[in-house]
What does this fold into?
Amino acid sequence: MKRQKAITVSPSRISDDDLSILSKIISPLLNVQFHVLQLPSAVLAGFEPSQIGSLVGVLMDACIPQLDQILDPKTFQSVGLKKHAGILKDREGYPDFIHDSGFRLELKLLYVDPTGVVMKKPATPREPSARLTQKVTLKNVNPSKDALLVIAYQLQPIPDAPHLFAPTIIDIGVFSMIECIDARDARLLSKGGKWFGDYETPAVVSKRGRVKLKARKKLNDSQYGRKESEGYDYNEDTNFGKLARTPYPPLNAFLRKYGWKKILVSDDEATPSDLEGSELEKEMGGADTGTVIAPSGRR
It folds into this structure.
């Protein structure tokens, strides 16, 4: 019998080989159904995908480290995941799990619409809400040990009771956390955003700020707001870290398999030319001779 390659913790960044080995170790989770949540097809007609996502997110987070108690222990004892104490010590403590090998994994879920069942549909497709929040930064990510675990799940019929649907794992992706964080943060800076504090609050240039940039006026980067109506040059980035907005090719390829064809761009990332002729531009006045200050770095 061929011996499985050993998994080791590198002193630098987690390697592609280690990610591949982790994926194989976790692969017994594929096709697992969580029968602790069973929904009749008639009931599903009253749910939107986002509502199901909220229910299943809590369920998956609690169940995955205890699969040997819920399902066949022999099948899943090799998975080796345990709930991590969490560095951040709160509801969203980082990371979620620790593997027997010493590697640490942060779990994010990707909901995939079920087939053969009618559900409530929002007027427009909703972006996956899973994100790497501002609480996960270079300060607490261990480059050699940390990985992002993305689990795609779908409500599927239970074989012995096809009128009941249960969350079923259909795909698993394991990615370098430090590479995802680097891509996330580089995107923030490339769009003119910046960090306030010591990696505390990510902020983007507000509409007012973009008009000032177009008019070659200096931005006030001493403070930020949360709403456009507050009139600051920077606003907190409410879309920061969403997986569908993180330009990391391996992660993007995984998301594309389930309908997300490109990195999303929101209104708060529009260029100053997008506001040409707007009422806000008229209110701010024309160009002057002030120095253009390119937003960068953290504060």
Remarks:
- The first strand starts at residue 39 and ends at 40.
- Confidence is low (pLDDT under 50) at residues 270-299.
- The first helix runs from residue 16 to 26.
- The chain has nine helices and nine strands.
